[in-house]
Amino acid sequence: MFRKITLLPFLLWLGIFILIPLGLVVYYGVTIETPVPYTEEEQADGSYAFQLEDGTLLDREPQPEKGFSLANFARLADPMYLKILGRSFSVAFSTTLICLLLGYPVALILTGKGFKYRNLLLMLIILPMWMNFLLRTYAWLSLLEKSGLINRLLDAVGLPPQRFLIDNRQGAVVLGMVYNFLPFMVLPLYTVMEKIDHHLLEAAADLGAPPVKAFLRITLPFSLPGILEGITMVFVPAVTTFVISNLMGGGKMPLIGDIIQQQFGKANDWNFGAAISLLVMVIVLAFMFALNRADHEAAGEKEVRIW
């Protein structure tokens, strides 16, 4: 009985902040508003009434009728949206891959036996996360823009400004994402790799295994859960972000997150915005399910073999 009572706050939080918002997104995604045809009729007192097709008079403008429809999802078949969706996953994949290539060696160094500056390096990795996300992105703008710090330094030494810093919008977006999401790759890797028993590596060395083979047979398999967790924590926000692509891309390289934000904001088309959100959510959940399944299979087959 006590356990059930202690679960109530969590269930309440789950219902208010997850289930109800998700239910609203699903509702808007599978419904469509159909305008009700009417004509305005001037009354004897000078006021206006709204006459429907069946002759009914209303004193206020009729609200659109809502009904179940998959038309919002059909709109996603437009080549423009498919192109933006493909670009979003391409940028997210590039960001995740770069974060993995940069974060894995860092985590490997941090968990090295006898590494003296572990706490200092960890603090430097986490420190930027204490700053506002928007401010960190604006800081990169001040570096890469036409009159930014980098081009001003080049001008000071007599070199021409580098146009690729300004024109390569996709590269700038990937750079901004890597900078912001890299800690989410390093920290899971560090947490998992710190638990790897160094005696296994010492035993491998005693048995004559070269460092590369010991890494491939011991460190890499045991760090796989951290790799999968880091990939998930980077890939998911990289797919759905819109702040970085809007600022670093200068509005010229919209991603799917920008389209969703525009539908709920400027376009005021919540139905289509919800449909896009549902599609992205399904794709991301499928991706996470595949990673989770790979993690369980790897855990079941984990075995230390040197030769």
Assess the beta-strand content as a share of residues.
Answer: 5-15%
What's the order of the H and E elements?
Answer: HEEEEEHHHHHHHHHHHHH
Give the biggest sheet: 3 strands, antiparallel
Oligomer: single chain
Radius of gyration in whole Å, from Cα?
27 Å
Instruction: State the separation between the terminal residues, measured CA to CA.
Output: 54 Å
Gross morphology: extended
Number of helical stretches of at least 4 residues: 14
The percent of residues in helical segments reads 55-70%
Uncertain spans: none
Average per-residue pLDDT, rounded, comes to 83
Strand tally: 5
Structural class, by secondary structure, is mainly alpha
Characterization of this structure:
By secondary structure, this protein is mainly α. Helices cover 67% and strands 7% of the residues. It has 14 helices and 5 strands. It has a 3-stranded antiparallel sheet with strand order 2-3-4, with no helix packed on it. A hairpin with a 5-residue loop joins strand 2 and strand 3. Helix 3 crosses helix 8, helix 9 runs antiparallel to helix 10 and helix 13 runs antiparallel to helix 14. The longest helix is centred in the first third of the chain and has 32 residues.
TL;DR of this structure?
With 307 residues, this protein is mainly α. The protein is 67% helix and 7% strand.
Walk me through the topology.
Blueprint: H1 2-29, E1 31-34, E2 38-42, E3 48-52, E4 57-58, E5 65-68, H2 71-74, H3 79-110, H4 118-126, H5 133-144, H6 149-156, H7 164-167, H8 169-193, H9 198-206, H10 211-222, H11 224-240, H12 243-248, H13 256-264, H14 270-300
Helix pairs in contact: 1-14, 3-8, 3-11, 8-11, 9-10, 11-14, 13-14
